[in-house]
Give the backbone structure.
Amino acid sequence: MTLRARLGWGLSAIAVVLIVPLLISLKSLEHLYETSRLLRDREFAASMLLGSFRERTDDARRAEDALLFIHDQRSATRMQEQIDGLVSFADSLDRYRLDLSASQIRTSLDALRSAAREEYEQASAGRGTVAEKISQQRTRPAIASVDSALGASATMLRSRTRQRVIDATNETLNAERLVAGALPVALVLAFAIGIWLLRSITRPIYELERGMHAIAEGDLTYQPSLPKSEETEFGRLAVSYNTMARQLAELERLRAEFVSVASHELKTPINVIIGYLDLLQEGIYGALTAKQKEILSTINKQANGLTRLVKRLLDISRFEASGGKLEVRDIDLQRLLSTLESSFSVLAMQRDIAFSVRHDASLPENVVWDDDRINEVLGNLLSNAFKFTPRGGKVALSVVPEGGNIVITVSDTGAGISPEQLPHIFDKFYQADNQAQAATKGTGLGLAIAKEVVEAHGGDITVESRVGEGTTFVVSLPVEAAGVRRKRDGAAHVEDVR
């Protein structure tokens, strides 16, 4: 799924799960509105109608009294108007579904109309006794029947209104409970979809970031766990990343091969040049003037510098070509340190530098290291210390056990390195700007080789320095090099440790 499609589906899903509680709420409000409308347009209007009906019934009762005692045409007309009004009210009751009461009221009104007519006729004819009898036996009972029907209608209306209010209340409570339950579920689902969407985007980005960081650190073998399908954006990025890493690895291989071949091919002409320089200085080809000897001496120094550079280049290219493999074996640690001490004591005397070596008594007798490589590392660190330390300065070598490792510290009171240059001193061919204080010029490869060797052993090398105060290198090595596989003769080798 492409990134755009993933975002679209994710956002759509979040919108859906959040809209569901809203739809439920709207449905509940719709039911509540419908119930309120019915209460207003039916129950409340019916209640008003019944009230008016009662008033008209009372008016009919008073009109009947006038008809009985006055019995003129005006009273008869008034009575007929009241009865017609009651009939119209009865017709209105049909709209409010009060059919049973309306039917009973119509029957009572028909009886009332007939009784009122006869009562008027008898009263007009002067037969008051008969008219009063009709009033008592027929007219008033008909009005009472209307009142009774109205009472029944009012009772039914109150019951129906109460039930409608209860139903509306229950619907509202049920909707409230449903929304209260649906909203947390919707929020959880939206949160889960958001987390999935976030992880599906940030995880590949994080993997690519790790891959780019690995390339920046020189690790061209790192493979980010990304889909290789070119149908998605991250799949295309993964393919591009792998292509870039493969091409960089090939370039690195070609570079190392070129350096190795070039260094090897340079050895022969440089050795020939140095050989002829030695012959010229020995006078084999004739006597030399003082100026010629001075020039030959300068050329000889530069040729020897080239020899050291070529040797360093060959050394590091061979180390890289072997994949950082070491030839490790049991080493007598005290012998190794004693050899270093005796080797550099002479140099310390020549340059008038105080050289001290401290061996901790709890050091193990043997360690499993590559003897030649560790000698090269420590020799390089000590050579640098002496190179940058002026006469009268101090160089110290300290070796102590610490947490299962051997910690070797080389410190001096030399020129020091500026803070902005310190992070780069382990880079190949990098040289700090303190070369003016050095006794001899370097190639910028010694510390790079030292770092490669120490890390190949599973150790670590760090540095601290202050300009004008000196530099301290700290090498921490395991007693037994990481990844060692011992052989029967006691030697061992380390494979693919970098």
In short: Confidence is low (pLDDT under 50) at residues 485-498.
